[in-house]
From TrEMBL:
It comes from Escherichia coli. The keyword 4Fe-4S does not apply. This is Multidrug resistance protein MdtN. Its main location: membrane. It is a single-pass type II membrane protein. The keyword Secreted does not apply. Keywords: Antibiotic resistance, Cell inner membrane, Cell membrane, Membrane, Signal-anchor, Transmembrane, Transmembrane helix, Transport. Residues 38-129 form the p-hydroxybenzoic acid efflux pump subunit AaeA-like beta-barrel domain. GO terms for biological process: response to antibiotic; transmembrane transport. GO terms for cellular component: plasma membrane. It is found in: Cell inner membrane. It holds the Pfam family Beta-barrel_AAEA.
Amino acid sequence: MATVRAPFDGRVISLKTSVGQFASAMRPIFTLIDTRHWYVIANFRETDLKNIRSGTPATIRLMSDSGKTFEGKVDSIGYGVLPDDGGLVLGGLPKVSRSINWVRVAQRFPVKIMVDKPDPEMFRIGASAVANLEPQ
């Protein structure tokens, strides 16, 4: 019997073992989600970026309960995305589509928003949210 201690509080998901089984190197037996800090990634039009700065206040609504709001602030603004025209591709850039329902729109760039007081019962990785920024 072994005890596993995490370096932070969080949620154990995707548990792939049971009592009596052996663990081995390079084979994860679970995933640990850090619930201390939550971020929302929102894709904003390039024409809106001029008013967005690190620290810009934000209001966030989760699609799972749109009646509840959370406050946050912009943590960072993306400075590159993968082009969809076959141009230069750099590793590590996010892919953000420029088309919505066959209509070509302004390029969008990811804006990372840190949630001030997240409710760990409501936030989930990959969940949908709506973010409104309040530039000053």
